[in-house]
Structures are given as C-alpha cells and as structure tokens.
Amino acid sequence: MRFKALMVDVDGVLIVHPDPKGWATHLERDLGLSPAMLQSAFFAPHWADIILGRAGLRDRLTPVLAEIAPGLSADELVRYWFENDAHLDQNLLAQLPAIRAEGVTLHLATVQEHERARYIWEELALKQHFDAMHYAAQLGWAKPTAEFFRAAAERSGFAPDAIFFIDDKQANVDAARREGWSAALWDGTRPLGDLIAEAAGESANL
Q1: Is the Cα dihedral 93, 94, 95, 97 positive or negative?
Q2: CATH number listed for the domain at residues 5-16+87-200
Q3: pTM metric for this prediction
Q4: Which residues pair with 133 in a beta bridge?
Q5: Mean pLDDT of residues grouped by 10 in the chain (206 residues)?
C-alpha cells in the first residue's frame, strides 16, 4: 500500500451525535442551563484559548458557571458534555483492523482541548484502535490552518505524501491536500478501504 499512515478526524467522523443539535440538545432540560447562554458566556469568549492549549477548560469554565449557573459545577457539566458527546461510529471502527493489517499506522487528527482528548483516548478507549493522537491543544494549532497539518505530520514521523486523511469538513480536506497529504471527505456512505484505494490509484482490496 502506498500510504503508511491514516489520519482520522474525530467529531463528525468517529463521533457522530444522533441529534444534529449535538450534545447540548437537552442541556436546559437536564441541567437547567440554556445552551445559548453557555455559548455566549463561555464558548464565544474563551474557547479559542482553550482549544489551542493557552488556557485550561475548568480554569475558564468554573468562574463562568459561578455567574450564569451557580448551582452547577464544572465537574457536572464536563461529565454531562463528554458522556453525551461520545457516540462512536462502530461501523468505521470495524473497518480499521483491515487497514492496519496492510501495514498502515492509525492516527487521530482532531481539534480537542486536553481534557476531552484524554477522555476520548482513555475512557472511550480509542487508544485500543489507534497508534497515536494529534490534537489542537497539544499542537498549538487548529484545523484548517496549515500549521496544524505540518505539526501533526512532523509529530507522526511520516512524510506528507505517506499520509491519507479523512474529515467531514471540506475546508479541512482542502487544507490537508495543500500540505501534501492525500485526503477525502468522509460522510460514511463509502467504505474506508475504497477511499484509500481510490486515492492511491489502486484497486479496492481491503
């Protein structure tokens, strides 16, 4: 096989919430906090720093909750968030062993802060399926910046032309291609082996 490394996005690819509104769909019903209020008071002003590793999740979340939801702790909200945003695509996971059997190492390339990255790796046990994870807070860059893809490739130890990448956002696919990666838009309708073979100019045999 031409490719030596497969890079897989997480949210929208490996984790797909059954409700298009996502993990916070029933937040107000369950915890009494309006998603719109959480967005305006927490995500809008603080998320960029958190996702790039410049601030800790709870360091920013705790004082915000003290203002907008004093009866709700950061621990409670983070637990609710992570557990409700953990719908793994078992069909995609089942396709990975055949890829690995071809000598391809499996990597996650994802925009995460430190805590959810650990949760995904440890609690959701993606470490059992993948060899490494490269994420935004660790790299200091987020998709679709060129620097994210350069840093992920460098950390992986593979040349850009040895990497195949799937993501659910066209902007990220395009950015990866500009950095020399092969990449395909993932919507779950085609087998992963077919996408890899197509990109490599091979017959699908996985």
Answers
A1: positive
A2: 3.40.50.1000
A3: 0.94
A4: 108
A5: 92 94 95 97 98 98 98 97 97 97 97 98 98 98 98 98 98 98 96 94 52
Question: Where does CATH 3.40.50.1000 sit in the chain?
Answer: 5-16+87-200
Collapsed DSSP state (helix, strand, coil) of residue 150: helix
Q: For Cα atoms 77, 80, 85, give the angle at the middle one, nearest 5 degrees.
A: 125
The per-residue pLDDT for range 79-131, each reduced to its tens digit, is: 999 999 999 999 999 999 999 999 999 999 999 999 999 999 999 999 999 99
Q: How many Å apart are CA 136 and CA 124, to the nearest integer? A: 19
Q: Which residues contact 151 (CB under 8 A, 6 or more apart)?
A: 134, 139, 140, 141
**Considering only CA atoms, which of 163, 197, 191 is closest in space to residue 177?**
163
Which H or E element spans position 7? strand 5-8
Helix 90-100 vs helix 192-200: angle between axes, to the nearest 10 degrees? Answer: 50
DSSP 160-182: GGGEEEEES-HHHHHHHHHTT-E
Using CA atoms, how far apart are residues 185 and 168, in angstroms rounded to an integer? 5
What is the amino acid identity at position 103? Answer: G
